[in-house]
Write a structure and sequence with these properties.
Family (chain B): Belongs to the binding-protein-dependent transport system permease family.
Oligomer: heterotetramer
Helix content of chain D: 25-40%
Structural class of chain D: alpha/beta
Number of helices of chain D: 18
Shape of chain D: globular
Shape of chain B: elongated
Number of strands of chain D: 20
Radius of gyration of chain D: 25 Å
Chains: A mainly alpha, B mainly alpha, C alpha+beta, D alpha/beta
Organism (chain B): Streptomyces rugosispiralis
Protein name (chain B): ABC transporter permease
Structural class of chain B: mainly alpha
Largest sheet of chain D: 6 strands, mixed
Membrane topology (chain B): Multi-pass membrane protein
Subcellular location (chain B): Cell membrane
Number of strands of chain B: 0
Order of helices and strands of chain B: HHHHHHHHHH
Number of helices of chain B: 10
Strand order of the largest sheet of chain D: 6-7-8-3-9-10
Bound molecules: adenosine-5'-triphosphate, magnesium ion
Distance between the termini of chain D: 40 Å
């Protein structure tokens, strides 16, 4: 259709502009809540239908406990009720902010397990995002902006390799080289306090960044290349704007959209990648908590973890969406 | 949720020639390289185990023998020939990835296509389910499915354990296709070509599958290639979680996972399967790149 | 952390194992992690340590049998205290033993099944004395009292039930301080109320879980941990000075294939015999275990893991004979047998399973390996639709006497497919049963001869198919005599 | 005094393809130079060569020289050239839509541009002055707006303000008016002319809009396939072009051809009948429908998108054999009306043969009676289908022809629109715009419609291609009794293709009547403004037998006023 189908300025000023904007912001919020609820419901029913009987595993399937003892434990865990009733109990608990207690360690609250693990995992994810964004955006801009074909090609090859290499492999190679050969960083494990813990995060974060950085880098490079060829950038260059200024002022902000979009789409993959790497490096994140929980059929913990990661993904996506709209109001259409 | 923002390109003005033409010749070469890698590896995966005198599970030599004329890639910790194992494993992995992604892509795209024509409510429902699946940490799904299905032989003839991985990949992979297809189809639905088709009185099915669907094939294909990269790496990492295909069927990820500890004493055992995963991934990545997907996830 | 290779042991050490215990209760879990920890914090009537003097008194001042062997009397030391400061009396001992006796199926299921099935009643005549009434003589009782399950717990704690195990208390050399199950980190410190007041160097232990063996080894090399447990054989060539192998720990038990006698294929004796003939045990050792193994693969159960057992001859591979055995069986023209395997307990198991799988192809038997998590394997076995199971029997000290009943479990338990050790019983092995019954009451001088007989009979009946002995190796940053272990899980610390 | 700009015999190649051959042009301060030519003729490349932007797309100046203000900048690399040219040359790029950073506010973009040159902080007043200079009222809202919140005209002015920020002496404008409305277009051109006079600015305007060039430049350069084929004073070149290509170009202007005649189209590729040398060819008498005449009718039509009403009380009716033109400014609802008439948008007030349109998907026998041709020739074809496949599909599904018959019919139809041979097996991506539009028409004809609705069928096309399509539509109406509704903002095109015209403004019909009357005796002010933007509109008069094509043959109202000053006195409407 014709290019001139643009809302006239007059049309925008009439009517409750603020109200509309609020409504536009609210609808993603509602969506996010719906999605989180869906994640919760799906998880609840999925694990209860897919996985086995926690009571048997808990008592120790290997010790051959009597059926009575198993039944008693089932009753204690509330597993004897019909599924819908269990679900209502769970939701009631959630409404009181109670995620329940672990089956495996009944005195431990799920919240503490999840928060504990999430602290590590999300610290890892945070560091990964930091590394990937700084390196990805920085190098991406350099590759697009600089006229260095050799550099560009090297970057391309590296990003291809990073993209295609399995994270666990990279992790272990890093452990064996950086940690052992160079003795730069601990080869795994976890410290007890925060500044200290960062050294344990470095290698795992680098490992995951190996995958995310190329994705961001390639997107930035591509988008920056496009933006550089957009008329506004060309005419700015022709007016005499320096390359650096052009890259920083105009190209970089225009790359924000794709980068945010990629981060949004990658989040759940990112968390999964972090989980694998955590296990390789022996970090006490949700990955460990989760494999243990799945192994011992600790339903409340599995549920808590999925709910938390799901919610985090959803909330981050919400933030990303709002950020995208703030950066680029056209996205709100 | 967030869509990649494209600047509105007015139809009245064809995109500047510069952006259309900029990199075409390069891309074709890349696609060719990518395709060659994938097809070449696929052929090797099929042929090498067939013509090889030793089978992948034969324990015929010293464990951890370095690469030699007899054992091109050396032997693994049980004394099996890594050359044959690698290629046979590649066959399983590649087959698994291709089939799972094809199913996910086809199913997801179909759902998206249908969703594009549903009333707003139906579309919202599908969108939310899509979002929920995307927010779901798929790794949980993989682990849970593997735990639930065990590695029983669900589908006769398929290596045991493959089904769990495959189902997990399918479930984890479909949503982007739905999203991509739906948003593109909604755009395409307004496109002049569809308007023209409707004016001609074509039925909704014809419009959907003849005039909208084909235009989405390349986008979805390029996304599938991108996803294949991620999935190749993922399948390669799953074994580290103790999830995977049952022996004696070799699998690249398991070959690495089982032997990574040997890196300092016998690098060839974990590195060679790792390299195959890497090269395969690069092949897919080149194809994805050149297929022109903007969305590089 | 201290620099690598410094031989000086500080008063705090870090031990890395491959997992954190699923449960701290040795009655619920017999994994290495659990028993290793239990031995550190648990108080025992008799001492497990240092091999040769196994069964010597610890919390007990003496353990003596009546001349007919039907009553045992345990005298406790005076002034014993649990690590929380409360007094340890004979009431606690009775409660601890009753707990074990009253746990369902233990008699048939556990390592201690034989001894437990011979104990009739435990009483406490006074605060320092415990009396055990036996249904039959059991000469190995002192040693049996040092097995992990026999940990002495406060009666008040036992009464609390499951919640006690959130933070268990006993009277061992150490006490549990923090139990961080989410982070996989336990800390222990010296128990101030330990009966033995001799000064010891190590005051604090960090027990961490590092799943990946290579990482464990890497952390050891970089000095993050002092002792790394369970290092696979094929990594051992990386262990170079100043690291030392805990060779005392090599003997990790024995691996064999348990048989589901109800399975139409594997239940057939001829098939089992054929399998045993078709297995190449040398190859298993060479390729699956990286050549790192003690002893030869032998028949039977712990006591014949002696390196010098005469039964080695029975283990030669003979494909022709194996095929001949298969004539007329369901496997004559090839067959498939489901093999249940645990992948997450010992690194050796999946590898051995794969080698055996390959070896059996030669006689047309296709093994279908089914990986099952450690926590679920018992349950899985009860389902019944399996043929063979890669059983791995951990190995306690070379105590010929006390495990006498081990070989042939109590048929009254009715459980012939359990995990822990009692071998399946079927009525058609009368010879084996008779011999086994005799062994239960045999004097220690008669036992070795009986054992040889049992082994012969065993080789014919093959209630389980022995494959190989296993290595279970720890690596230490210190010279071998500083930290080492006894059996697979009893750590001897300075 | 040296010329402000002197381009001499430059040859440019991009990736070994030669795109410019011996291009020369010169310009003095205060002078306006137009460059015209069809798409791909090298106009933009010429500008790129001057500004140094060639290298960014891999282009090179092989030979020749470019002097700007006496300095030789031919071989200067981009970066140092930017320094040299700062404050001397500025450029308004093609595609005003992406000529502003979409994310930055207008105020800051202008400020940045100002600071680039002076290296001191630009005050708010400076920013305001810069915007006022391009006749924008620098309200706070404007300063805080982002580009997408502005109308096309406003945006184009901001782009010009940016270009002027460095106080250049030479302004290069690439298609500055293409995307704009008739009224906005003339005000932007006026702005150029004003600035030129105020600042003694040298101005190069690239456009394929000959009317724009005619009104805003003194001299013109005509380019064809990377060569300059003609230069001269604008008025002279346009009045009596010497080069055959220029003749063709100017001749293809629909304004230049009297109604009732075929337009002059390029020889060879286009309709043979219409391309006879020199003279005009009359369009044969139209086929007259017989019997029951199908009709499409909108009666008391109101239409809203959501709560925004875009059409108010519309009455139109077209029958087979009738031709209706719909004109109006951008956004007035023309396309919406076209879509309503064809049943793409639902409304009970629109009837075909007395029955309202069914919703999409329902069976409707009269569905095929009304067909639609759309503006974007590429987008209106399914990109995965070849030309033949598109048309064949229509034959098979709409007319229910068996496979063989459909194939034959499709070939026939394609031939009827001038597509034969290898072309029919190509996909849209490998066809030119005009060819795509022909496929589109053939496909519409496959439905055997009685009424054809064409929404801006030529506005995406080059002049000569446009002439071909107009001729094709003219021919089609002679072959069968076809009703034609043509939607366009180009009065000249409409004048050829309609008997009746309705003029729309903001969703209402403000004027309607026979074409002659609306074009030459317009009543509504809006219609008048439209008509006045087309200086050469030809009345329905047969050319004399000896008449040569050109404005002389059909003098428009403003034909002999000096160019460049003509529209100056009109006050500028703020958009
Ligand atoms: N980036 C590029 N790479 C290679 N060739 C190009 C590139 N851009 C344009 N060309 C070619 O250069 C020639 C001149 O193009 P140019 O853009 O100057 O045309 P134009 O006259 O401005 O056309 P339009 O009216 O469509 O803007 C054309 O043949 C075109 O195909
Ligand atoms: N799908 C739509 N949803 C909402 N508003 C629309 C839609 N399409 C068009 N409009 C609005 O309806 C009005 C009429 O649009 P229409 O496309 O009919 O105008 P037009 O006369 O064809 O303009 P142009 O000459 O630019 O093509 C415009 O204000 C436009 O913004
Ligand atoms: Mg151009
Ligand atoms: Mg329109």
């Amino acid at each position: 259709m014709s290019s001139a189908v643009l809302p006239g300025p007059a049309a925008r000023r009439t009517g409750g502009r603020a109200g509309k904007r609020l409504a536009a912001m609210a609808s993603p919020l509602v969506q996010a809540i719906v999605v989180t609820l869906l994640v919760m419901v799906i998880t609840f029913f999925l694990i209860r239908t897919l996985l086995g009987d926690p009571a048997v595993v808990l008592i120790g399937g290997n010790t051959g406990a009597s059926p009575q003892r198993i039944a008693a434990l089932r009753a204690e865990l509330g597993l004897d009720k019909p599924l819908p009733a269990q679900f209502l109990d769970y939701v009631a608990g959630l409404l009181h902010g109670d995620l329940g207690n672990s089956f495996q360690h009944p005195t431990t609250t799920v919240a503490s397990v999840v928060v504990n693990g999430a602290g590590v995992t999300f610290a890892l994810v945070g560091v990964v995002l930091l590394i990937s964004c700084v390196v990805g955006i920085g190098v991406g801009l350099l590759a697009a902006g600089g006229d260095w074909p050799v550099f560009d090609n090297i970057i391309r090859v590296f990003s291809l390799i990073g993209l295609a290499a399995p994270g666990a492999l990279i992790g272990l190679v890093l452990i064996l080289t950086a940690a052992l050969g160079g003795r730069l960083f601990p080869a795994g494990g976890w410290g007890s306090g925060y500044p200290d813990n960062f050294q344990y995060l470095i290698l795992p974060a680098v490992t995951v960044s190996f995958w995310l950085t190329p994705i961001i880098l390639r997107a930035v490079r591509e988008r920056a290349g496009e933006v550089l060829h957009e008329p506004f950038a060309e005419s700015a260059a022709a007016r005499g704007m320096s390359r650096t200024r052009l890259m920083l002022r105009h190209v970089a902000p225009n790359c924000a959209g794709p980068v945010l979009a990629i981060i949004g789409v990658s989040l759940s993959y990112l968390i999964s990648g972090a989980v694998i790497v955590e296990i390789v490096y022996g970090l006490p994140g949700i990955g460990r908590a989760m494999t243990t929980a799945v192994g011992s059929l600790d339903f409340p913990v599995i549920q808590g973890i999925v709910l938390l990661t799901g919610a985090v993904v959803v909330v981050l996506n919400l933030i990303i969406e709002i950020a995208t709209r703030v950066i680029d109001p056209r996205a709100a259409r | 949720m967030t869509a990649v923002v494209e600047p509105p390109t007015p139809a009245a003005m064809p995109r500047p020639a510069s952006s259309r033409r900029r990199r075409t010749p390069n891309l074709r070469a890349e696609r060719l390289v990518g395709l060659t890698i994938v097809v070449g590896l696929a052929l090797a995966f099929i042929i090498v185990p067939l013509v090889s005198p030793v089978s992948s599970s034969d324990i015929g030599a010293m464990p951890l023998a370095p690469p030699s004329a007899r054992h091109l890639f050396g032997t693994d910790q049980l004394g099996r020939d890594i050359f044959v194992r690698t290629f046979e494993a590649g066959r399983i992995d590649l087959g698994l990835i291709l089939v799972s992604i094809a199913v996910a892509a086809f199913g997801g795209a179909l759902l998206g296509l249908v969703a594009a024509y549903l009333p707003a409510v139906g579309r919202a429902v599908i969108s939310r389910i899509t979002d929920a699946t995307m927010a779901f940490p798929y790794i949980v799904l993989v682990i849970a499915l593997a735990a639930a299905l065990g590695n029983r032989e669900l589908i006769p003839g398929l290596p045991r354990g493959a089904a769990a991985i495959s189902i997990a990949i399918m479930i984890a992979c479909w949503p982007p296709y739905t999203r991509l297809t739906m948003s593109r189809a909604i755009v395409l639905r307004q496109r002049d070509s569809v308007v023209a088709a409707r004016v001609l009185g074509y039925g909704p099915m014809r419009v959907l599958f003849r005039h909208i669907g084909p235009a989405l094939v390349s986008t979805n294909l390029s996304y599938a290639a991108t996803q294949a990269v991620a999935t190749t790496a993922l399948v390669g990492s799953l074994a580290f979680l103790g999830v995977g295909i049952a022996p004696p069927t070799p699998e690249l990820g398991r070959m690495m996972a089982d032997s990574i500890a040997l890196l300092p004493i016998a690098w060839w055992v974990p590195i060679i399967p790792g390299l195959v995963v890497l090269v395969l991934g690069i092949g897919f990545a080149l194809m994805a790149d050149s297929a022109g997907g903007r969305n590089s996830r | 952390s201290p620099s690598v290779g410094s031989n000086a042991v500080s008063d705090e050490i870090t031990i890395a194992d491959h997992a954190i215990p699923q449960s701290l209760d040795p009655m619920s879990s017999a994994s290495y992690e659990t028993t290793q920890l239990t031995f550190l914090w648990g108080g025992y009537l008799t001492n497990y340590a240092d091999g040769k003097d196994s069964g010597s008194p610890q919390l007990a001042r003496s353990v003596t049998a009546s001349p007919d062997g039907l009553t045992w009397t345990v005298k406790l030391r005076s002034g014993l205290k649990f690590s929380d400061g409360s007094a340890l009396t004979s009431k606690d001992v009775v409660a601890s033993l009753d707990r074990i006796l009253s746990t369902p199926n233990v008699a048939g299921d556990n390592f201690i099944g034989p001894v437990m099935s011979s104990i009739k009643k435990v009483t406490a005549p006074d605060g320092h004395t415990v009396s055990l009434a036996m249904s039959r003589p059991y000469p190995g009782l002192p040693a049996a009292l040092s097995t992990p399950e026999m940990v002495i717990l406060p009666a008040s704690g036992i009464a609390k039930g499951d919640s006690f195990w959130k933070h268990p208390v006993s009277a061992g050399r150490f006490k549990l301080d923090t139990l961080d199950t989410t982070n996989g980190k336990f800390t222990l410190s010296a128990n101030p109320n330990y009966y033995d007041t001799a000064p010891r160097r190590i005051k604090k232990i960090n027990f961490v879980a590092v799943t990946d063996a290579a990482t464990r080894l890497a952390q050891l090399k970089s000095g993050q941990v002092d002792y790394a447990d369970n290092i696979p054989g094929n990594l051992l060539s990386q262990v170079k000075s100043p690291l030392t192998l805990d060779t005392a720990k090599w003997n990790g038990g024995q691996m064999g294939l348990s048989v589901n006698f109800n399975d139409p294929v594997a239940g057939d004796k001829r098939v089992r015999q054929a399998i045993s003939l078709a297995v190449n045990r040398q190859q298993i050792a060479a390729s699956a275990l990286g050549g790192e193994r003690v002893g030869r693969p032998l028949y039977g159960i712990p006591w014949n893991q002696d390196n010098d057992s005469p039964n080695a001859k029975a283990t030669k591979r003979d494909i022709g004979a194996a095929k001949a055995k298969l004539k007329g069986t369901k496997c004559e023209n090839g067959c498939t047998i489901p093999l249940v395997t645990v992948t997450d307990s010992a690194w050796q198991v999946p590898l051995v399973a794969q080698v055996v799988q390959q070896q059996l192809k030669a006689i047309g038997i296709r093994l279908e390996i089914e990986n099952t998590p450690f926590t679920q394997v018992g349950d899985r076995l009860k389902q019944g639709d399996w043929g063979l199971f890669t059983r791995w029997i951990g190995y306690y000290e070379n105590t010929r006497t006390y495990l006498g009943g081990y070989i042939y479990g109590d048929p009254t338990s009715g459980n012939n497919a359990n995990f822990w050790g009692t071998l399946p019983t079927t009525p058609d092995m009368p010879g084996l049963k008779a011999l086994s019954d005799r062994l239960k009451t045999a004097s220690s001088s008669a036992a070795p001869g009986l054992v040889e007989k049992i082994n012969e009979e065993y080789a014919k009946e093959l209630p389980s198919i022995p494959l190989t002995t296993l290595s279970y190796v720890g690596v230490s940053r210190f010279p071998g005599n500083v930290i080492h272990s006894v059996g697979a899980s009893y750590l001897v610390l300075p | 005094m040296t010329a402000l700009l002197d381009v001499r015999d430059i040859n440019v190649t991009i990736a070994r393809t030669k795109v410019l051959t011996d291009v020369s042009l010169a310009l003095d301060s205060g002078e306006a130079l137009g460059i015209i030519g069809e798409t791909g003729s090298g106009k933009t490349m010429t500008l790129r060569a001057i500004t140094g932007l060639l290298s960014s797309i891999g282009g090179r100046i092989e030979s020749g020289a470019i002097h700007v203000d006496g300095r030789d900048v031919t071989r200067e690399p981009l970066r140092s050239r930017q320094r040299t040219l700062r404050g001397i040359v500025s450029m308004v790029p093609q595609a005003s839509m992406s000529s502003l950073d979409p994310l930055q506010r207008i105020g800051s973009q202008v400020r940045e541009a100002l600071q680039l040159n002076r290296r001191t902080r630009a005050t708010d007043d400076d920013v305001r002055h810069a915007l006022e200079a391009v006749r924008l009222t620098p309200t706070e809202t404007l300063l805080r707006s982002r580009p997408h919140e502005l109308s096309g005209g406003m945006r184009q002015r901001v782009v010009i303000a940016l270009a002027l920020a460095s106080e250049p002496r030479l302004l290069l404008a690439d298609e500055p008016t293409t995307a704009l409305d008739a009224s906005v277009r003339s005000s932007v051109l006026n702005l150029f002319t004003g600035l030129r006079i105020e600042r003694q600015l040298g101005l190069v305007i690239v456009s394929h809009d000959i009317n724009a060039i005619a009104s805003a430049t003194d001299r013109v350069v005509v380019m064809h396939q990377g060569r300059v084929v003609e230069t001269g004073r604008t008025a002279e070149v346009l009045r009596s072009p010497r080069d055959p290509y220029t003749q063709m170009l100017v001749g293809a202007l629909p304004e230049r051809t009297p109604r009732g005649y075929y337009l002059l189209a390029r020889r060879g590729s286009e309709d043979e009948r219409a391309a006879t040398d020199g003279g005009y060819v009359p369009v044969p008498a139209r086929a007259v429908p017989t019997g029951n005449v199908p009709a499409v009718e909108a009666r008391r039509l109101h239409f809203s998108y959501g709560d925004r009403q875009v059409l108010h009380d519309i009455h139109v009716r077209v029958r087979a054999g009738e031709r209706l033109g719909i004109v109006g400014e951008s956004g007035s609802g023309k396309s919406t009306l076209a879509r309503l008439l064809t049943g793409v948008l639902p409304s009970d007030q629109v009837t075909v043969d007395g029955r309202p349109w069914r919703r999409f998907g329902g069976r409707q026998p009269e569905r095929h009676e009304v067909q639609l041709i759309l503006q974007d020739p590429f987008a209106s074809l399914t990109e995965t289908q070849t030309a033949l496949a598109s048309v064949e599909e229509a034959c098979r599904t709409v007319q229910r022809l068996p496979r063989r018959a459909a194939h034959g019919r499709a070939l026939e139809l394609l031939e009827a629109v001038g597509l034969t041979g290898d072309l029919v097996h190509r996909r849209p991506g490998r066809l030119s715009g005009g060819q795509c539009q022909r496929v589109s028409i053939a496909r519409a004809l496959a439905a055997n419609p009685s009424i054809l609705v064409a929404d801006e069928p030529t506005s995406a096309l080059d002049l000569s291609v446009q002439a071909g399509i107009v001729n094709l539509l003219l021919t089609l109406t002679t072959r069968r009794p076809l009703g034609l509704v043509v939607v366009s903002h180009d009065l000249a095109v409409i004048s050829h293709l309609s008997d009746t015209i309705v003029v729309m403004e903001r969703g209402r019909i403000v004027e309607a009547g026979p074409t002659e009357q609306v074009l030459f005796r317009p009543e509504h002010p809006y219609t008048r403004q439209l008509v006045s933007a087309n200086p050469w509109l030809a009345p329905n008069a047969a050319p004399g037998p000896d008449a040569a094509p050109g404005p002389d043959a059909a003098p428009g109202p403003d034909a002999d006023r000096p160019t460049g000053t003509r529209t100056l006195e009109r006050t500028d409407a703020k958009p």
